[in-house]
Specification:
Layout lengths: L5 H6 L1 E6 L2 E6 L26 H8 L4 H5 L12 H5 L6 H19 L10 H6 L4 H13 L4 H18 L6 H9 L7
Antiparallel strand pairs: 1-2
The chain binds zinc ion (ZN).
The site of zinc ion has 6 residues, from loops.
Length: 188
Amino acid sequence: MLEALRAPLETGEVSIARVSGLRRLPCRFMLVAASNPCPCGRGEEDPDCTCLAAAVQRYQGKLSGALADRIDLLVAVSQPSAEEIGGAPGESSAAVRERVCAARERQEARLGDGRCNAEMTTAEVRECELDPVAAALLADLYSRRRLSGRAHDRTVRLARTVADLSGATRIGEVEMAQALQLRRRDRV
Ligand SMILES: [Zn+2]
């Protein structure tokens, strides 16, 4: 059933076939999903995790590569340490909101029609300016990990968003490295 999300994630439409014909309905949505790292939920680095490697692989395989490819951010979250959980709260939501709104404004000013980076066309992705180091980082990963064309473009869109958050005019090494980090399925 999860795989049924692939087309709407890509096209923003859902197609329903009926005797009367094929209906296409608008279906733009934001997918937010979470899963445990392994069947027991503790994660392999926890000494109490008794999951066998094959079971972990099977479990993680429920999210297919094709579907993961269509998700912009894949972030592995480790359990916070005792100091972190008892420590000072992080940045306030209001401060984060301000930063996100400023980044959205930059995107809309660049792309027009109230669009954000996720809606960039392939041609607009190609027009994104990458400095030579950022371009080399992406090219290296593209060939080493055999990224799909889709994953390549999603990485550029994400790096452009990281750049918009800091107000950078072009995608540099820092922005590209962060984008690549935010698309890793494995824990770091
Ligand atoms: Zn486990």
